[in-house]
Design brief:
mainly alpha, ADP-ribosylglycohydrolase fold, binds inosine diphosphate ribose, binds magnesium ion, hydrolase activity, Poly(ADP-ribose) glycohydrolase ARH3
Length: 322
């Protein structure tokens, strides 16, 4: 566990949800660009337009609703969750989904069991994309421990991502969200310890190699372009989850800077910023986010409602009203 351990407040729960949605919606116009100019990003922040989210937030909403509705000991019903994800896609297929996921969701909606549907893509090996990681952060809100968060994350990924890297990505981001949520923003974050904790939760050599590189990058204060070059910025789990982690660990006490850094890594900007934003939001809370930006978020009301439900969850007795 990271050294300074804090109670989970309503503000942190809301911060996790809003930080993720903000990263997604602010990063969306830049998705696919090899690099992102700071002036273009600043213009997007100043624009008065509504901040429209993509598949990252659409599926995060589905997962958060699933968790908010389940008050029994079994926190995740993966069969039901698979159908809920597939329904979310059917309702809004235009949200910018990856290339393989619509095929999986189409099969699930046609009655194919998710165990089979999730193996129908990429010549039967299943997806190693970051789609399971991008939506996973809310599991941290109902997890009892770091390992429980990783386990819930992995299971929530299985309906769409049968490749182990896709599932490890979800486990990694879920565990990171748990650590960020329980970290105390009044004390400096021990970055090395944070990554060591993650390595205990994600037992996979390629991931450990990425954590080692992330440790170096944060220690050296690497900028977003350097980080993208060293760790990746594509739609694979291995090529984006550690990049998002590095964005957070570079600016752990400033959610806006975390999101800007993540977007400026370019490539899969919405997803890297959604993941990084959820981590920073969980640590620093919603009260540190720009009110102007939050008020432009398409799903702001829905996310506030979900935060109320999840913060008041019986599995979250530690939530305080701070
Ligand atoms: O993982 P997934 O839901 O994608 C999420 C991404 C995010 O950037 C969202 O914002 C949205 O834009 O999509 O969707 P998948 O199609 O399963 O995986 C994403 C991408 O990873 C695919 O389009 C492929 O380029 C790549 N990919 C693979 N390529 C080869 N072999 C994933 N798995 C494989 C594979 O097994
Ligand atoms: Mg997206
Ligand atoms: Mg994306």
């Amino acid at each position: 566990m990271t050294a300074a351990f804090a109670a989970v407040t309503h503000d942190k729960v809301l911060g996790l949800l809003l930080g993720g949605a903000l990263g997604d919606a602010l990063g969306a116009p830049f998705e696919g660009r090899p690099s992102v100019d700071a002036a273009d990003l600043a213009a997007e922040e100043r624009a008065p337009s509504r901040l429209v989210h993509t598949d990252d937030t659409a599926l995060t909403l589905a997962l958060a609703e699933h968790l908010a509705q389940r008050r029994d000991a079994e926190r995740l019903d993966v069969d039901a969750l698979a159908l809920e994800f597939a329904r979310a896609w059917r309702a809004e297929p235009w949200r910018g989904y990856g290339s393989g996921t619509p095929h999986v969701f189409g099969l699930i909606n046609a009655g194919v069991p998710w165990t089979e549907a999730s193996r129908a893509t990429f010549q039967g090996q299943g997806s190693y994309g970051n789609g399971a990681a991008m939506r996973v952060a809310p599991v941290a809100l109902v997890a009892d421990s770091l390992h429980h968060a990783a386990e819930l994350g992995q299971r929530s990924g299985e309906p769409t991502h049968s490749h182990k890297h896709g599932q490890h990505g979800a486990a990694c981001q879920a565990a990171a969200a748990y650590l960020a949520l329980h970290s105390d923003p009044a004390h400096p974050l021990d970055r090395t310890r944070f990554l060591q904790d993650l390595a205990r939760a994600v037992r996979s050599r390629p991931w450990h190699e990425k954590f080692d590189r992330a440790t170096e990058l944060t220690r050296n204060g690497a900028g977003p372009k350097h980080t993208a070059h060293a760790l990746g910025n594509d739609a694979s789990a291995l090529g984006s989850v550690p990049t998002a982690l590095t964005a957070f660990l570079t600016h752990p006490d400033d959610t806006t800077q975390t999101i800007r850094y993540a977007i400026q890594t370019g490539g899969d900007a919405d997803t890297i910023a959604a993941m990084a934003g959820a981590l920073a939001g969980a640590r620093n809370g919603a009260s540190t986010l720009s009110r102007g930006l939050i008020s432009r978020l398409e799903a702001a009301d829905q996310l506030h409602h979900l935060a109320d439900q999840l913060a008041g969850h019986p599995r979250n007795p530690t939530v305080t009203s701070g």
